[in-house]
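Handout, section B. The chain below has 148 residues.
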Amino acid sequence: MTALDRFEAKYEPEPMSGCWVWHGAQNQSSPGRMSYGYYWDSAAGKLIAAHRWSAKHVGGLAIEDGQVNHRCDNGLCVNPDHLYIGTQRDNIMDSVQRMRRRGTRKMSEDMIRSARGLYDSGEWTHRQIAERFGVHRSTITWVLRHQA
């Protein structure tokens, strides 16, 4: 059995989303964090994130050039058509645009603009803005430091 055969036996295509959902080994994710699959790369002699293995060996992407990000917001997806090489900043900005960044999904674009306006007035602290919008102070700090 080839490495590709072993890999293909561990995912199942999901017809509605097009995701290839990984059913092999997975990390134990904490609430609000994505789960990822893991695959034993026998050629390299190490455990590798399943989506990274797929990106390289199925999709032909140069994973050494950056991190492998998901277009589909499904950390267990190993479909190389749903993966792209990018940076952590790319991934964060993508998460903000899709409102899947922890905390920011609780804030609409209007709320984010309003929070920035309050802060720019010089009369509001991060804590006061967070209390006004019912989110954690770190969420406001993140929103104010990044362009969403």
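Note. Residues 113 and 148 are 9 Å apart (CA to CA). Compare this with the example in section A.
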